[in-house]
Amino acid sequence: MKFGVEGDMKSRAVFASGIIVLTLLLSGCAHDRQPVQFYRLNADAGVDRTRLVPVATQGPVIGLGPIRIPEYLNRPQMVIAITDNQYQLSEDHRWAERLDQNISLALFKTLPSQLGTDRLVRYPWSQRQVVDYQVGIDVLEFNVDASGQSRLIAQWFVKHKDKPAIDKRSVYQFPASTTDYAVMVKAQSQCLSKLGEDIAVTLRQLMASEGGK
Question: Can you list the positions of beta strands (E) in 59-186?
Fold first, then answer.
């Protein structure tokens, strides 16, 4: 009987020791895991500051949006295209907000100084809002590929008083990385900045031609 009690006590001791070791291992893994990193895009990367113009409070109203992106991109995790048909999502590197909202806000912050007007509204605007020029963007591709290149393909249009004025497809590419997510975001910001510059140039030309009529 005494042997049985001692054996039971030894089994409990071994079990308790195992629990302690497992707890320490799990605790070590938790400490080794890096915290999730969050990122946002900007649309003024590499913008030529000498081409910026003073912002006026009068002039035509420009509506920015809608901005649409594919659902596979509009998620918290950052995406790398391993192949044309396979994608890798990172759980540890995420967007700080919805990607379509980030793109919209980044362009909305940068365009006034490129256009020389702060009379911009973001989609959706109220039905009472009169918009002279509307810019809509369909993002077709916007990620880093397996070779470490960031690529943005966007179909975008400009309407003047609800009549189509411009419809273009633009492709931008910058060297990035497949492992350094900060470098990826910088390259993607450069792509977005070039799109913003092209939109600003097009709008300035349209507004100048309309103003001269």
Answer: 62-68, 77-81, 87-95, 120-122, 133-145, 149-160, 163-175
Together in a domain, 87 and 16: no
C-alpha span between 100 and 83 (Å, rounded)? 23
pLDDT in tens, 21-70: 555 555 554 445 689 999 999 999 877 665 566 666 678 999 999 999 99
Domain membership of residue 28 as a residue range: 1-33
Same domain, residue pair 1 and 103:
no
Give alpha helix (H) positions in the chain: 2-32, 99-115, 181-211
Q: Looking at the structure, do residues 29 and 44 belong to the same domain, yes or no?
A: no
Query: Residue 114's closest CA among 207, 40, 186, 39?
Result: 207
